[in-house]
Amino acid sequence: MCSPRPTGTLSQLSSTMPPRSIYFIPIILCALYFSLMLFQSNVPSFPHFLTRHGEYSPLHEYKYLLKSHPMVIFSKSYCPYSTKAKDLLVKTLSINPGHPRNKSSNLIVEPHVVELNLHSHGSELQGYIASQTGRKTVPNVVVKGVSIGGSDDIAGMFDQGTLVKKLQDSGLRVVQ
């Protein structure tokens, strides 16, 4: 049996109906969902990562990363060697790039980490990085455009006491 048709004045009916703003909730939720999906991507959607034909360019992204960050760790989230290198560089050392316009800056900046397995063009980017640095494996720690090695290299330099000096010679301020 169908429910009876509502009767009464318009003001009585409107008091039983939800407010109009409730109809915007699904639209707002959809917009929020798609915004989060866009920001979850590990690849910034900058047009300068694209060729003039609209194709992804690992060259452009690599140049952008090196220009924007004094230290980049190319990693894979599941790799224990990557985790070891990230822990050493991020948790053990505090690194300040020493911005040229602000020599007295005490701001501590963590190395920029690119998780290649979460990156939508990770294999392309990793292939390009290998062609530039000679290192095909992760982690690959690049300081001021020069690869200083992987996990074993970083740990070895740290154990020998040469890592801090190497980073300082590259222009980074390092605090242990």
From TrEMBL:
The lineage of its organism: Eukaryota, Fungi, Dikarya, Ascomycota, Taphrinomycotina. The chain crosses the membrane at residues 21-39. The keyword Transmembrane applies. Residues 72-148 form the Glutaredoxin domain. The keyword Glycoprotein does not apply. GO terms for molecular function: glutathione disulfide oxidoreductase activity. InterPro entries: Glutaredoxin, Thioredoxin-like_sf. Pfam families: Glutaredoxin (PF00462). GO terms for biological process: cellular response to oxidative stress. Keywords: Membrane, Transmembrane, Transmembrane helix. It comes from Neolecta irregularis (strain DAH-3). This is Monothiol glutaredoxin-7.
